[in-house]
Amino acid sequence: MDAKTGTLARDEVSVESQWDLAGLYSSDVDWSTELTALEAEIKTYASFVGTLAESASKLKACLEFDMNFSRQLEKLHTFAHLKNDEDKTNSLYQGNYEKIMMLVNEASKASSFILSEIMSIPEDRMRGFLAEKELEFYRFHLEQILRYREHTLSEKEEALLAASGEMGRTMQNAFDMLDNADLQLGTIEDENGETVSLTHGNFQSLLQSYDRRVRQDTFHTYYKAYESHQYTYSTLLAGSIKKDLFYSRAKNFPSYRAKALFSENIPVEVYDNLIESVHENLGPLYKYFGLRKRLLKLDELHTYDCSVPLVGGINWHMSFEQAVQEIRTALSPLGEDYVEQVTRGLTTDRWTDRYENKGKRSGAYSSGCYDSNPFILMNYREDNINSVYTLAHEAGHSMHSLYSRKNQDYLYSDYTIFVAEVASTFNEALLTRHFLGQDIDPDMRIYLVCREIDNFRGTLYRQTMFAEFEHQVYKAAEGSEPLTLESFKKIYSGLLERYFGPEVVLDDCLPLECFRIPHFYFSFYVYKYATGISAAYALADRVLSGGDAELNDYLGFLKSGGSKYPIDLLKSAGVDMLSPEPVRTALAKFSTLVDELEHLTSNHSKN
I need a surface site. Which of 280, 431, 524, 567 has the fewest CB within 10 A? Predict the structure, then answer.
């Protein structure tokens, strides 16, 4: 155990609270053996060079080899990244992760000819190939590739770009190590006078403290650590953006945003409609901050006052095992098969790595591959209701993956990121419905309504603010404006003022927040959280108010993987994201919740 933080070392964590990776590889030796074997296979790619235009059968043979190689590579990568995330200070797993990423890079180089050769096949000849039964299974896959004709370079140029991939990950890798391994966040004194070491895992819990001095100290101590490295963080983020611009320009895209949206065939209007709709509905958000300021009886509301529960005397405590049972009950509208599978996954099948340990990656995610069950990284805290919601959220991702892999061939088993947040947020909506449907006292109802408001605020408003930040900094970079510490902070400060409005005092250190968001190293990802919550609540309303047909539509969506473009998948499930209506409906729900909170707290104060 770390004497300063009280955090367990990895070898002190109980087996039952760790994920079970034995289904991937029973030992590190087995992983290394398979890695060596796959490294030897990479030369087979060369045998297909120059053959793809000869016949449909030659093209099919290459695609089959590439699919099988990718499947094995994905399995190796999954094990390596999961082991590396268990403890970022473990040199063996750092090394193994580097090995697999080198193989990923080598495979990218070796297979880079495939796209350029497919693109060089004359259109009439390719139409003939696509009409042959032999390529029927690959038709949608090839159609997705052929969309990139004008963005595909010569074989040598594609190979050169592929070779730069490992170098291009440097900024992201450096951020990851700085933020998770090297950064010392400092200590604060909690409400009991005990010294507590700050971690990414307990930061949000401490911001929910009823003691304002604890919240204030937590906030300023946390950001003081970022301030001490602010030039490094700004340089890393600027480098990541410049890397992205290099690739978008090399591939003949008008902007990196256009490149990012093109991959999922998402019209740019979806992005712009999101930001515009949120701008039009900031009033209810400002109203909420005003309510929070009044109810907390504060002269000034700061951002560190925006997470503390609005009612006193509620000390949340829920064990991991209890959380699983609550989630099980909440998800019952999805049917017995779904509920039994997710319950086994979270308990006896050990999908989840439950608790924080020294060196473990912060946050949470769902991972896995075609040849494994899902895996969930958690840093579960029994004193934070958000941990229960995060578990339900990641379980949604995992069940989406499980259903897709069971019902689609490997080639079409991966759903795109645009729809990735739908199933997870859907589960959160059902969890809130479950909690609010119980016989609870007025304080707990206020607590849960406020929590649901904060979920909308964090997922819809906050992620849209992040999306707007990305759009603005990339536009600045594409306009040859310098990306400096001050320019990042200036852009972010302007957005903070817009999204927090007149009721919140913005501390001078708050613009440093833009440097601690890991998603900015996966550019133009965050807007999908906002569109995802909009689609999820629309689908949840549809399933809960409907019957078997609506449920089957939703389960069909989960089973569809990547067999269609994401906009088409959602339309099949009953939601049209080309329209601004799902976003506006979600924003209207937020406004209704704020009105409900106002009503509940008004009645509560009279009692």
Answer: 280
